[in-house]
Amino acid sequence: MNKVLMQGNKVIGEAAIRTGCRFYAGYPITPQNELPEYMAESMCQVKGGVFIQSESEIAAIHMVAGASAAGARAMTSSSSPGISLKQEGISSMAACELPGVIVNMMRGGPGLGNISPAQGDYFQATRGGGHGDYRTIVLAPASGQELADLTMDAFDLADEYRMPVMILADGMMGQMMEPVVFKEPKPRQYRERYVLKGAGAGKSRFIRGLILDPRAMEEHNWKLARKYEVIAQKETRHEAFNTEDAQLIVTAYGTAARIAKGAIKRLHDAGLKVGLFRPITLWPFPSRELQEISERTDNFLVFELSTGQMIEDVHLALCGRGYVNFYGRPGGVVPTPVELAHVIARQYSKKDRHHE
Amino acid sequence: MTKKVFGKPKCLKENVFHYCAGCGHSIVHRLVAEVIDELDIRGITIGVPPAGCAVLAYNYFDIDMIEAQHGRGPAMATGIKRTLPDRVVFSYQGDGDLAAIGIAESFHAANRGENITVIFINNAVYGMTGGQMAPTTLLGQRTTTSPSGRDAVKEGYPIRISEILSSLPGTTFIERCTVNSPPNIIKAKKAIKKAFQYQIDGLGFSMIEVLSPCPTNWKMTPIAACKWIDEVMSKEFPLGIIKDIKSSDKGGKSHVG
After folding, report:
1. C-alpha B9: how far from its chain's center?
2. Which residue of A23, A62, A98 to mutate against B (max B Cβ within 10 Å)?
3. Please, what are the averages of pLDDT over each run of 10 residues along chain A (356 residues)?
4. Domain spanning A4-234: which CATH class is it, in words?
5. A196 to chain B, minimum CA–CA distance in Å?
């Protein structure tokens, strides 16, 4: 397919449809409304496509769970306050091992917050979000192209590991237009036996998250934990930019990483050796990859559009090896690369003095 | 020559019901199972049990089932039915599940005219959690959270869900039954069968409300509980067909299936 210029929210919709998503339920909330609107139009044009504007975020996620159990590739999307409402269903899907894709176009918070781009939902996304011992794979795109690629991958990962997968972006990602090429989707690999479609002439099945016997529940918890361990080993993704000879590494994801890249390019022109470590999977966090970089550089700056959430994963990855500073702009403020370049340059020169 | 006139429905498993003595759930389970057998739809039926006393319904029904979170049965059933429109999909819900925490999901599934069937067990209390006040608790009824009797000033009024949902154009057949006597059980089964048939015929949302005895939490003997349904509960929740789009005097005129 040729390159097309598309808005981020619509890119997700188109990628989902191309990769076989045939069920979408959602509730309007800014800044992601173009996505349900795109799905409303697209689902009419594909065979078996279902679009439902649900009465609530809660209903939407449970519709997705039902559709998923019945064998559909299913998706819902929202923005921060709506994602809070979906947590009951996400926890339930994790428990019942139902695949599904949840898109969070983050906005400022807590509470109703505002409708500007922010990254305050990192904890919620990467620590499970809802109740109970579970994880969701969290993918953090930083460009239109990645929105397309990661949306397709999200469906494949959800099927492979039978669990909800979250795409964590923000209002900026959703609103901006970039050229995109949609890759050829992989054929779906999902076993028929996981699908609930009526017992036919055979044995009946049931899907449930209620396990009253504590030992059986513990066994289920460990089963899920083993799955998460495999994912943590196999599925980490990141981008390393100018990290080879860097004296300072900026760690940032999504929109913040784009701003950081702009700042780093400016500083490069001024002779400063600054690199970018951009986690693409926020869970599993690419800890080993960050550790490897820490063998060459010990000066880190974490930059987030929040008061500091991913920084905890950076600390956990580095285990004290390295100096970690933080710069954050929460609340929907999007700083310019120039502003961030000043912050980076300050830390860069301070660290130099420290070494002397 | 002997003829078998009574037996266990084919789509009930061998497991012994965990329900209390005199509880209506086991009767309603049996009726739903008999209807599934008689309509010969075991292989294409998917049930959605609730959170509540019937949460373990999948231990009893020998059909495909998926448990819903509390109140979300109609949303989940919507997802299943829209994905597999040729399957028969029903949710099974109590009064707390349907009329309190899940009223939005119920109301909107009904309003969309989702082609599903809801079995609504109304026993006027939260059974599994120990007899707290439900949205359908009668005025003056003592529960663990309305110890001096439900007071309209503080706690509002019992909700008549069937009447409310009947006002929605998307609903096709709604009947309130009870299972406190053999004749009423026979009527309830007929109603359940009709509700499933409406779904099979593609007409839209159907619901059967069952006034169901809960002797344990009503603190009555099973016999007294059955009597209480006749003498008290059914005065607040009148039995009978509340809506039938095929019958002109039951709201059928304005809504053609």
Report:
1. 19
2. A62
3. 93 98 98 98 97 98 98 98 98 98 97 96 95 98 98 98 98 96 96 95 96 97 98 98 97 98 97 98 98 95 98 97 96 97 95 48
4. alpha beta
5. 7
